[in-house]
Amino acid sequence: MDVAVPALAGVLLLADSRLPSGGHGHSGGVEALVDRGLLRDVDDLALFLDARIRTAGLVAASFAATALGWEGEWAPLDGALDARTPSAALREASRAQGAALLRTVAGAWPGSDGLRALGGELGRPHHPLVLGAAAAAGGADPGTAAALAVHQLVGAAATAAVRLLGLDPLRVAAVQAGLAPLADQVSARAAAAATAARAARDPDLLPADSCPLPEIMAELHSTSEVTLFAS
């Protein structure tokens, strides 16, 4: 009896923190908050991650899930994500991570038409778009692409908090596990939004949830003289 096996190898590669995509150089806004005494302990981190999953996590997940099944020109999707990222520093961070990930996955899946088209048209696309296109190359579905985006957002911030504050990594891992149901809910909402946006060929249907504090902190961080993380 044949048993259908989901495509996991490529997805696991994209979820691996050891993937050489440059994400380890970004704190997801944690460093700016730590430097200003706004994030000091595990409880602060839990609140921060909760808010980020609901806002930036939802947006990134929606665009990653949409990119997985996107057909045609990439510029409208890329521009829509630009419009949802008011901070120039955050736009640059997203494109830097996108370019780094694109270089990695282009070698991993050299036969992917989606990755070739994305890189050829945009050069330095936003990170969620590359993540979605790479997830497609790895055989994932939109829900998985959305979950990957949330996973990476949470993982980067949590790892940075451990490095910057010396937090107990076991307690931080417990915080991440506690937020898993929320992450699943947001990923499902993102996948549903992506389905509607792809069907209508309209990126404006994707979520635009945001919070001004991370945008402000990103701009302040970009002008700091000494930082451990790029963003």
Provide a quick synopsis of the model.
This protein has 231 residues and is an all-alpha fold. 68% of the residues lie in helices and 0% in strands. It has a single domain (33-222), classed as Urease accessory protein UreF (Orthogonal Bundle), CATH 1.10.4190.
Q: How many structurally independent domains?
A: 1
Query: What would you call the shape?
Result: globular
Count of helix runs = 11
Query: What is the rounded distance between the termini?
Result: 51 Å
Derived structural class: mainly alpha
User: What oligomeric state best describes the polypeptide chains here?
Assistant: single chain
Sheet with the most strands, sense and barrel status: none
Q: How many DSSP-defined strands?
A: 0
CATH fold-level assignment: Urease accessory protein UreF
Helix content: 55-70%
Residue-averaged pLDDT: 93
User: Which regions have little confidence, pLDDT < 50, spanning 5+ residues?
Assistant: none
Description:
This protein has helices at residues 9-15, 30-35, 42-68, 75-83, 88-108, 113-122, 127-137, 142-165, 169-178, 180-200, 212-222. It has 231 residues and is mainly α. The chain has one domain (33-222): Urease accessory protein UreF (Orthogonal Bundle). The longest helix is centred in the first third of the chain and has 27 residues, at 42-68. The radius of gyration is 17 Å and the shape is globular. It starts with 8 loop residues before the first helix and ends in a 9-residue tail after the last helix.
